[in-house]
Amino acid sequence: MTGNPIINIRHAAKSYGSLEVLKDISLQVTKGQIVAIIGPSGSGKSTLLRAINDLDPLTSGEVWLEDEQVNKPLPPRQYETHINKVRQNIGMVFQHFNLFPHLTVRENITLAPKMLKGITGAQAEELAVEQLTKVGMLDRIDYYPSQLSGGQKQRVAIARALAMKPKVMLFDEATSALDPELVEEVNLVMKQLAEEHMTMIIVTHEMGFAQDVCDRVLFMDQGVVVEEGPPDVIFKNPANERTRNFLRKHLRGRN
Amino acid sequence: MGLDFSVVPPFFDALLTGALWTVAITISAAVLSFFGGILFAVIALYAPWPIRYPFRLFAWLFMGTPLLLQLFLIYFGLIQIGVDLPAFVAGVIGLGLHFAVYNSDIIQAGILAVDKGQYEGARTLGLSRGQTLRKVVVPQAIRSVVPPIGNNMIALLKDSALVSVIGVTELTLSSQMAISRTFRPFEFYVAAAACYYVINLGLEAGLRRIERRIQIAR
Description:
The complex is a heterodimer. By secondary structure, chain A is an alpha/beta fold. Chain A has helices at about 45-50, 75-85, 105-115, 120-135, 150-160, 180-195, 205-215, 230-235, 240-250, and strands spanning about 5-15, 20-30, 35-40, 60-65, 70, 90-95, 170, 200-205, 215-220, 225-230. Chain A has a domain at about 5-95 and about 165-250: P-loop containing nucleotide triphosphate hydrolases (Rossmann fold). In chain A, the strands form two sheets. A six-stranded mixed beta sheet of chain A has the order 6-7-8-3-9-10, with helices on both faces. Chain B has helices spanning about 10-45, 50-65, 65-75, 85-115, 115-125, 130-145, 145-160, 170-180, 185-215. In chain B, helix 1 (about 10-45) packs antiparallel against helix 8 and helix 5 packs antiparallel against helix 6. Chain B: InterPro entries: AA_ABC_transptr_permease_3TM (IPR010065), ArtM/GltK/GlnP/TcyL/YhdX-like (IPR043429), MetI-like (IPR000515), MetI-like_sf (IPR035906). Chain B: Part of the binding-protein-dependent transport system for glutamine; probably responsible for the translocation of the substrate across the membrane.
């Protein structure tokens, strides 16, 4: 691996009581890398992703964003200030979009930049136009989320995250809640981001997408990374029995 | 003695003035109860316990005792400790706080019903707890509870008649004054009821408009 990692996870572990959902996971992601995390449900892949911006805090282990520890042990008040700053650099896209239903598409995108970066109304407008153009949603700028399809909502959610100019984007099953015919439009936006060398960590069930777009694939099961490597190796020639079983189930019906 | 509604028109002016006071009291108390309700809801849910527990006592006081008693206490009682409020102000405060406590209960439920994903979406962008509450959670909670809050506002309009007892010359007291001059209770109470009905229609129309406007933004 070359270059300093943007995201560096060291010995991440998490448990709920006696249930261990993450067991000593380490992962480095360098600038421009696109990493897919695959695995059966309950394998801990979403938990790992949500630990990166401390939405689901780890029980032990460290998460670093460049030279800053995300889950730095601090008194509550200082931690609050610290994490709000760090999170501005980590974009996240959710399975259920989590757009703000009481705000228009424009306001969804400009809310956080206006509040946190102190930009003017004109700059905010420019930002909204720029990001919506990127995801092909400019003509819906004055709509409310309730007036959009699932695919459109997710594209707006991506634009909202991008408007903070994050250093890394996390995708938590971004297409899992979409009707099949709407998946492609979101995939296209993500591919475009990949071409622009956005650093991305993608939890997904879309094996085809992971294979086409990602540089690295992690297969997780029962809280551990069972196998990792370039997509060609993981998908065509997996070394581990559990990976093979999982892929066999998942790829059945394809081709 | 039959009914004769021709006694009413000479008192139109007095009744109209009374009706305007009723509207003024209702709107003032409604605004107080709305913003007070939001504040109380946030206190009840998020304030540290040294603030939260005294607040509960205060809320219990307003929910567990008659509004009439509260008005007496505020208007006649507070003078003893040097707080001499005009009757209108005392009425607005009494009605406003009373309904703020009821609105607070509804708004608390609204806040708790906001999807967890909304907090996550906001916090992930870097918004603080306070910013998330102010810009994302509370506005959505309010939108979801407009109908029950609206019902409270209609109850508030009707309960505004109680401030007649502390001497605010609103609709009910105006009609009583007309009655004491004409000895025609039936005619004037019916006239007052008609006025309340008309004000109520206006209030309901306003509430429906608000509901329609927020329909899409939910």
